[in-house]
Q: What sequence folds into this?
């Protein structure tokens, strides 16, 4: 039975402060606001908001995330500058969602798992809230990079979401090797995806749409958006991310308001 799952309620496995080490077993809690572009996408449930997915602030009024985050939930609030979702720490910024833009070719069987959120108000940039650095168009990931997944998702297979932001080192996995690991389940890993991890560290429910932060030179660059994993022994399989560099033309087109004019927006 095919048991692929999109990580819609996903939270990463973490480290106190990123260190250049080869392995973080299970991950650990991130240093508060070390990843200042990290966003929490939330939906109203009764009288309270509930964390649904992660996201990435890329401009003052724009957040990048995964398309599948909108399949079953009405995401209406984006929280920036947060660390512990259960506490008011004074650094949070709450922004209502003005509009969402789902990639026109998004399909669970074909990929293109990416979306943009236009916030109703601009974020205030400071020490706790900053815009992410995105890669050049079509830059491919390197196994030499140190990459961290971050999020508030589950820290074990059937456990609850994490209250605090977590992080874990996920080594980049060669695409052909990743394809071969998913092939028995009939799952297609596309060229516009990135695979990382596959050992004790991995993405889980609640981390969807959150970043894969890769240290390129001296700066962290958001190269991936958490997309899916395999529920059938997925600890042994890499987590699959949308490769951000493959969608830079589409992102630029949407932000510039040229969605109907720019063929690159389709990125097919």
A:
């Amino acid at each position: 039975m095919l048991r692929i799952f999109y990580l819609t309620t996903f939270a990463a496995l973490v480290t106190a402060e990123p260190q250049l080490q080869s392995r973080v077993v299970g991950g650990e809690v991130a240093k508060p606001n070390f990843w200042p572009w990290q966003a929490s996408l939330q939906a109203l449930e009764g009288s309270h908001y509930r964390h649904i997915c992660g996201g990435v602030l890329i401009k003052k009024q724009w957040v990048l995330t995964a398309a599948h985050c909108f399949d079953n939930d009405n995401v209406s609030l984006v929280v920036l500058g947060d660390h512990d979702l259960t506490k008011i720490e004074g650094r949070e910024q709450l922004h209502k969602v003005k509009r969402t833009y789902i990639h026109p070719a998004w399909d669970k069987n074909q990929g293109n798992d990416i979306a943009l959120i236009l916030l109703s108000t601009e974020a205030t940039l400071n020490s706790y809230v900053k815009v992410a650095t995105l890669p050049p168009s079509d830059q491919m990931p390197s196994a030499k990079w140190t990459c961290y997944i971050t999020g508030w998702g589950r820290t074990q297979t059937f456990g609850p979401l994490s209250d605090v932001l977590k992080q874990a080192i996920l080594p980049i996995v060669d695409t052909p090797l990743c394809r071969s690991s998913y092939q028995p389940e009939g799952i297609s890993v596309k060229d516009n995806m990135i695979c990382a991890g596959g050992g004790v560290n991995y993405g889980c429910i609640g981390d969807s749409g959150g970043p894969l932060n890769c240290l390129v030179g001296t700066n962290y660059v958001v190269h991936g958006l958490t997309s899916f994993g395999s529920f059938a022994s997925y600890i042994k399989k890499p987590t699959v991310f949308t490769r951000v560099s493959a969608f830079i033309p589409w992102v630029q087109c949407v932000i510039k308001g040229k969605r109907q004019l720019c063929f690159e927006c389709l990125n097919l």
